[in-house]
Design brief:
Distance between the termini: 47 Å
Oligomer: single chain
Largest sheet: 2 strands, antiparallel
Strand content: under 5%
Number of helices: 12
Radius of gyration: 21 Å
Order of helices and strands: HHHHHHEEHHHHHH
Strand order of the largest sheet: 1-2
Shape: elongated
């Protein structure tokens, strides 16, 4: 591996409400025996465990045991994968919404919206602890993007990702309010464009002194949200 794995934390499948020191401490104690396994995995599957981490398909543990019956001891492999999926690099890949991949590096399954959301929260929590600036605005924007990518309604998304963490829920509510305001602006801009008679976004943007790229993004979002 080219980078020392960061401190452990719950994996992308564990919501913030389940985070406890009792979970983190045992994982840290298993770090020494996990690292040689991760070195071996990086050599065997550099496209998954190398310089760039990709989200792993569910059932990858069984796939690895089947592919290498004599190469890994069951418990140490389990510890290594748990350590790997709690790393900041791995969670960042989940937070980016990348698909899950199999051992051949093929994308096989979309990442569940709730896993993306909880990974976002955990990654920003870690980064905020090291940052000299308030990262909350960036977190809100990333939640908005994750919500829009999910294709769910605001109500469905909130029901799916809401937890017992009040701070996380406050960030969620702020992001969904921002998404609602943005959606209203996008719809208004689309109506104005359709009524303008302009054939190109560039011409329409020039009429109002708008940035054409921003206008294109806004119009595309509005079109995608139309029933």
């Amino acid at each position: 591996m080219t980078e020392t794995l960061p401190d452990t934390a719950p994996s992308e499948q564990t919501p913030p409400s389940a985070q406890t020191a009792a979970v983190v401490a045992p994982a840290r104690s298993k770090q020494p025996r996990a690292l040689p396994v991760l070195e071996k995995l990086a050599a065997l599957y550099p496209h998954l465990f190398g310089d760039m981490f990709l989200p792993l398909k569910r059932g990858i543990f069984q796939d690895l045991l089947a592919a290498h019956p004599d190469a890994f001891e069951r418990e140490t492999l389990k510890d290594a994968l748990a350590f790997h999926t709690r790393s900041t690099r791995y969670l960042s890949s989940v937070a980016a919404g990348h698909q899950r991949h199999d051992l051949q590096g093929q994308a096989v399954e979309a990442m569940a919206p709730e896993h993306v959301h909880h990974a976002l929260l955990e990654v920003f929590r870690r980064r905020q602890g090291r940052a000299n600036e308030d990262l909350r605005p960036k977190l809100i924007e990333r939640i908005v993007q994750a919500f829009e990518a999910s294709g769910l309604s605001r109500e469905a998304y909130a029901e799916l990702v809401r937890s017992r963490d009040e701070a996380a829920n406050a960030a969620l509510d702020e992001a969904l309010a921002e998404a609602a305001a943005r959606s209203a602006k996008d719809e208004a801009l689309l109506r104005a464009f359709e009524a303008s008679g302009q054939k190109t976004v560039q011409a329409f943007a020039d009429m109002y002194g708008m940035d054409s790229r921003a206008a294109t993004l806004s119009l595309n979002r509005a079109r995608r949200s139309k029933p």
